[in-house]
């Protein structure tokens, strides 16, 4: 192993394999907190676009008509800008239908070049010919003043030549000064001619916030539009919202706010949620040409005036040569004026995407919870189940985003959380694989150590007996102070060393593993195989969550290094000490007995019992399940008890059952001693034919507050 590989492995194993994943989780939390400065922001924006493509806003009603200055109009009436009297004729046609409001999506910042005064300057001597001709700006102003009309204003970040202050700010808007700092502020503006401003009923800005292009438009995709901004420290609505306000009588605007900024805006009875900076997360509908009319057709009388009745009319550009087009999250290429139409539709439907200021906190909580869940669960799982766990967690996060959008148009970023959790999972998985390999090497080392020790102590049976007995746990010491259960055990080899064993240990705070086994044969070979069997049983039972799979692994490992073809009967069980649930596997062993009150029962192993370990090889063992009641006494024993003889008869299971039935109320250790004494009395001094092993477990039930 190279030094770099060893360093990587040590880093993965640090803190029991959890330190490095915790560091990665902290880094992931930092990236999520600053996601707009990372490439993940593009992933987030793309995912929010997929939500909209999955379910775009339904545009069932068409309250807006767009009269477009399109290519047909430019061919019919000449290049833009048109004479103001021609624009006045266009507005006159529209106003004849009595629309709710008319919005002009362009700015008349300079005088009409067809004004008589300007023509006279260019053509000296023509003043007498032009005398008496109307001023086109005055003609347009007179028409604009006939009906509710909203002029466009372009906010400027600094004073420029030709800048002009708008004349129609909103009525008093009550806002916390701290909340207004998040809104767009423009130092100046580009507005229409004063006579047009005076005649118009209102003005609304048409530009986005100053940093919109860098922050919210990825590859030309428009996702957010502003609703409220300050120009010369005066509040103004965007053009479409100002049109709605005028149609409703020009009342005040209510702003929902918090210390972080805006939360929503209300115009009359219509409400829309917003971001803290006043931007609207527009829920786009599919593009449609139904509500687009050519200005040339309107001027030519193709459409009757009634088509504009009770509708909002926006006059704007619809020619590629006159304006930039934007891409919607749905993939549609739209003229900018279409955005105004969709804003009005969204307000009237009160439909918008929702990503309130607390949504990032929800995502951060989900990230930390998912990361801690992986850190806690993956090291305890087999690699296959660990992969399934991460896949399930990722699908849950991504699916939650889709469900949140479908349920209430909430924008929850699940994919970014899955991407951020992937390094945490990979580190945990690497640590788990390294730990599994280390356990395998340790098991092999222990096996080899057992063989070497057996060879060194050949002929020293007394020393071997001490070593063998030292491998067995002392239940009273291991579980001192335990109130939920009590265990007693006894093992007496028929010779100096034997092939029986028992084991008991906690897999975790709630699960207790108990085991008993009987190796075929006697003496040193059996004792060596017993040591191997006990070691593998303990190691693999801790390694597996599935008891049956653990027993299969035990058999495979024992069969791999079994030149003497020994086999071992075993009964291994896991008790949930809180619920009393007992899962067990029987490999050719006698079924344990259960004392429940005055009744003596047998644990049912007939349906799930398999052959002894190493008898058939790779047998698919199955686990059984039973449930203990508080006060139950479980008795595990080897055939050294049931087959003990007095020279003529065997002790048998019935005598064992009778002995259990008459046991006094004492500790399991004392009860083990009483049963052992009963067996020895029955033998009447005859030499034991086999090792005697007993393990008694009394379950007291769960203790509150333990």
UniProtKB/TrEMBL annotation:
Tagged with keyword Transmembrane helix: yes
SUPFAM superfamilies (UniProt xref): PP2C-like (SSF81606)
Positions of the PPM-type phosphatase domain: 482-699
InterPro entries according to UniProt: Bact_Sigma-Reg, CHASE2, PPM-type-like_dom_sf, PPM-type_phosphatase-like_dom
SMART domains (UniProt xref): CHASE2, PP2C_SIG
CHASE2 domain sequence ranges: 40-374
Membrane-spanning ranges: 358-378, 385-405, 417-436
Pfam families: CHASE2, SpoIIE
Keywords in alphabetical order: Coiled coil, Hydrolase, Membrane, Transmembrane, Transmembrane helix
Coiled coil stretches, renumbered: 433-460
Keyword presence, Chloroplast: no
The protein, known as: CHASE2 domain-containing protein
Organism: Azonexus hydrophilus
């Amino acid at each position: 192993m190279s030094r770099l590989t060893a360093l990587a492995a040590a880093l993965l194993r640090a803190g029991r394999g959890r330190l490095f994943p915790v560091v990665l989780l902290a880094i992931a939390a930092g990236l999520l907190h600053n996601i707009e400065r990372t490439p993940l922001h593009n992933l987030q924006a793309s995912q929010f676009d997929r939500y909209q493509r999955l379910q775009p806003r339904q545009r069932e009603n068409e309250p807006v008509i767009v009269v477009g200055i399109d290519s047909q109009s430019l061919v019919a009436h000449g290049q833009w800008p048109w004479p103001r009297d021609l624009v006045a004729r266009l507005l006159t046609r529209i106003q004849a239908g009595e629309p709710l409001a008319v919005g002009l999506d362009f700015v008349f910042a300079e005088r009409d070049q067809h004004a008589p005064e300007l023509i006279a300057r260019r053509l000296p001597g023509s003043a007498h010919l032009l005398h008496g001709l109307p001023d086109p700006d005055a003609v347009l102003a007179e028409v604009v003043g006939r009906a509710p009309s909203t002029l466009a204003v372009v906010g400027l970040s600094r004073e420029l030549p030709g800048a002009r202050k708008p004349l129609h700010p909103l009525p008093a808007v009550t806002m916390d000064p701290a909340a207004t700092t998040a809104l767009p502020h423009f130092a100046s503006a580009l507005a229409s001619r004063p006579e047009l401003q005076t005649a118009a009923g209102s003005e609304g800005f048409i530009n986005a916030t100053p940093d919109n292009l860098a922050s919210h438009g990825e590859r030309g995709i428009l996702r957010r539009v502003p609703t409220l901004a300050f120009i010369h420290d005066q509040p103004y609505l965007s053009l479409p919202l100002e049109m709605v306000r005028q149609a409703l009588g020009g009342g005040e605007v209510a702003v929902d706010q918090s210390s972080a900024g805006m939360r929503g805006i209300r115009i009359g009875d219509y409400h829309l949620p917003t971001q803290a900076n006043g931007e609207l997360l527009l829920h786009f509908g599919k593009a449609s040409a139904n509500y687009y009319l050519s200005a040339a057709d309107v001027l030519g009388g193709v459409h009757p005036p009634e088509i504009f009745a009770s509708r909002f009319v926006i006059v704007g550009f619809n020619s590629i040569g006159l304006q930039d087009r934007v891409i919607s999250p749905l993939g549609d290429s739209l003229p900018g004026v279409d955005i105004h139409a969709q804003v009005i539709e969204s307000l009237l439907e009160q439909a918008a995407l929702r990503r309130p200021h607390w949504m990032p906190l929800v995502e951060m909580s989900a990230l930390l919870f998912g990361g801690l869940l992986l850190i806690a669960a993956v090291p305890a799982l087999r690699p296959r189940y660990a992969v399934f766990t991460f896949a399930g967690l990722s699908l849950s996060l991504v699916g939650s985003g889709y469900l949140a959008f479908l349920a209430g148009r909430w924008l929850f970023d699940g994919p970014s959380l899955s991407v951020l959790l992937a390094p945490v999972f990979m580190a945990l998985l690497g640590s788990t694989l390294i730990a599994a390999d280390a356990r395998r090497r340790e098991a092999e080392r222990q096996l080899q150590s057992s063989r070497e020790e057996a060879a060194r102590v050949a002929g020293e049976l007394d020393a071997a007996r001490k070593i063998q007995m030292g491998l067995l746990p002392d239940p009273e010491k291991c579980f001192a102070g335990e109130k939920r259960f009590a265990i007693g055990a006894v093992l007496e080899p028929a010779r100096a060393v034997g092939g029986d064993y028992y084991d008991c240990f906690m897999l975790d705070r709630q699960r207790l593993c108990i085991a008993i086994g009987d190796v075929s044969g006697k003496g040193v070979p059996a004792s060596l195989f017993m040591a191997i069997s006990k070691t593998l049983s303990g190691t693999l039972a801790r390694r597996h969550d599935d008891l049956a799979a653990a027993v299969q692994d035990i058999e495979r490992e024992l069969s791999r290094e079994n030149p003497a073809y020994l086999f071992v009967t075993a009964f291994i069980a896991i008790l949930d000490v809180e619920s009393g649930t007992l899962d067990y596997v029987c490999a050719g062993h006698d079924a344990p007995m259960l004392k429940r009150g005055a009744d003596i029962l047998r644990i049912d192993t007939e349906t799930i019992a398999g052959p002894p370990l190493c008898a058939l090889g790779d047998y698919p063992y199955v686990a059984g399940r039973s449930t203990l009641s508080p006060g139950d006494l479980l008795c595990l024993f080897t055939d050294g008890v049931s087959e003990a003889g007095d020279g003529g008869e065997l002790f048998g299971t019935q005598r064992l059952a009778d002995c259990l039935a008459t046991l006094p109320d004492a500790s399991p250790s004392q009860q083990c001693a009483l049963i052992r004494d009963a067996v020895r009395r029955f033998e009447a001094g005859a030499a034991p034919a086999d090792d005697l092993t007993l393990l008694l477990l009394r379950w007291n039930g769960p203790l509150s507050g333990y």
